[in-house]
Write a structure and sequence with these properties.
Elements lengths: L2 E11 L5 E11 L2 E7 L4 H4 L6 E4 L4 E4 L1 E6 L18 H14 L3 H17 L2 E8 L8 H12 L2 E8 L4 H19 L6 E3 L1 E5 L5 H11 L6 E5 L3 H11 L3 H7 L8 E4 L5 H10 L3 E3 L1 H6 L7 H7 L3 E3 L8 H16 L6 H20 L14 E4 L12 H7 L6 E6 L2 E5 L2 E2 L4 H21 L2
Parallel strand pairs: 1-4, 1-5, 6-7, 7-8, 8-9, 8-10, 10-11, 11-12, 12-13, 13-14
Antiparallel strand pairs: 1-2, 2-3, 5-15, 15-16, 16-17, 17-18
């Protein structure tokens, strides 16, 4: 039995009904939290166990690992890239940058982007990502390539491939098959990987492809990870082509439900909110990306009022969930012109709803500090200059803690980051190799201009 014992930690679960233990301990056995409490480690727990790892937290703050419920690992290759174009709309952004970039990715680029973006996520305190992948020039096997890279660095992950018709019906079917193949590959394993079925957006997915998807998914109990109404073009296309709004179209296709994720939802209306609530489909908002693409921010207050669970992701804009949930708060306050609003809502979204979403995706309890939950947690080297208690813990997390202060990251009971360094990898060697791969990606990107 693999064991990890953490001593002398300030244990903080910063939920709306959370707790703070000023000095305590946590025991993980075979990847699961088997005990945690205040004070010294009890004698029966402290006994010597062969092979057990021990960490003296020396007063550092122990938090549940952060969760990113919408990510694009391959966006790493956009860092420093030039498109040679001026984008005037959201559709321009897709055509000028992202659809050229994803077509430029081959196996080595997929592996390297997963490794580096995964390392950035871990070092920022994120222990699980829900990724939405696209690489039209390398579809079959792409999710396994990502999973191999992420598993090697110790990051829990939920993967899907972006089904779309924009590369022809053959590419769309290949995307369907990659999703089902990977889902079947990992669902019986007790590793770090889980699968979903990904779709790009309604305006690039035909009814023929939706029918093929449902036929090939068959009886599998799988969730769907879908971009919904990120830009106005998506709703306009759905109404014009199909005579119905996007969420209605997804509902008619049988793609909604608690296991699914509706991403963005900037342009949905009240009737669509009602359908999402009725089906139990959560929405994941991505504030920094939405603001960067100038598409507006979703009607989160109305979503919550309708009974929709709202989580937080980054859309690949960053790997840093500390940045993202801060910007979610200030972005929503700006949208609604409400300087006192959304504190409890963002707290619940980041700490509780993201945990609910990931737990449904993975089939295990993730993002919680309780016995039986996955042993995914972080140690933050945070010196509290003011009192810290269960009522204000999220305030300390929001205003005082940051990715730079993350010292140790544990996923599935294994130490993945120590001293802010990802274990088991030579970062300098990887950087040199990644720059070579990036050069080839950018050259392919330029040829598509």
């Amino acid at each position: 039995m693999a064991e990890l014992l953490v001593r002398n930690a300030r244990i903080v679960y910063p939920a709306t009904r959370g707790f703070v233990v000023d000095r305590g301990w946590l025991l993980a056995q075979d990847g699961v939290i088997s005990g945690l409490a205040a004070g010294d480690v009890p004698v029966d727990v402290a006994r010597l166990v062969a092979g057990r790892q021990e960490i003296d937290a020396a007063g550092m703050t122990l938090l549940p690992g952060l969760l990113n419920t919408h990510m694009h690992l391959y966006s790493m290759y956009s860092r420093g890239i030039g498109t040679g174009r001026v984008s005037h709309s959201f559709l321009d952004v897709l055509q000028d940058l992202w659809w050229r970039l994803d077509r430029s990715l081959l196996k080595d680029a997929c592996w390297m982007s997963a490794t580096f973006s995964g390392m950035d996520s871990l070092r920022s305190g994120t222990t699980t990502i829900v990724d939405h992948h696209a690489s039209p020039s390398y579809i079959a096997g792409s999710l396994s390539t990502l999973s191999d890279a992420l598993s090697k660095i110790g990051l829990r992950h939920v993967l899907s491939y972006e089904i779309t018709d924009r590369n022809g019906i053959q590419g769309a079917v290949a995307g369907v098959d990659e999703n089902t193949r990977f889902f079947d590959e990992v669902r019986e394993k007790k590793g770090l990987a889980s699968g979903m079925v990904g779709l790009h957006a309604s305006f690039t997915v035909s009814d023929v492809t939706l029918t093929t998807l449902r036929e090939r998914v068959g009886s599998r109990k799988v969730g769907y990870h879908v971009h919904v109404a990120e830009g106005a073009v998506d709703e306009e296309d759905s109404v014009e082509k199909y005579g119905k709004r996007i969420v209605t179209r997804l509902d008619d296709a049988g793609l909604l439900g608690p296991r699914s994720i509706a991403v963005h939802c900037v342009g949905i209306d009240a009737s669509e909110r009602e359908l999402l609530a009725k089906s139990g489909t959560p929405v994941v908002v991505n504030t920094m990306s939405n603001m960067n693409n100038a598409v507006g921010l979703p009607a989160v207050r109305e979503m919550l009022k309708a009974g929709i669970q709202v989580g937080i992701g980054t859309d690949g804009y960053t790997a840093n969930m500390f940045e993202e949930f801060r910007n979610t708060l200030v972005g929503l306050r700006h949208r609604y012109e409400d300087p006192a609003g959304f504190w409890a809502e963002v707290q619940q979204a980041q700490i509780e709803t993201n945990a609910d979403i990931v737990s449904r995706c993975t089939g295990c309890t993730v993002g919680r500090l309780e016995e039986g939950a996955a042993a995914d947690f972080i140690l933050v080297d945070y010196a509290s200059p003011t009192p810290l208690n269960s009522e204000n813990a999220f305030g300390h997390m929001f205003f005082g803690m940051s990715a730079d202060l993350v010292d140790t990251v544990v996923v599935n009971g294994n130490v993945a980051v120590k001293g802010h360094h990802v274990l088991g990898v030579n970062r300098e060697d990887l950087e040199r190799e990644s720059r070579k791969v990036a050069k080839a990606v950018w050259e392919a990107f330029d040829r598509l201009s």
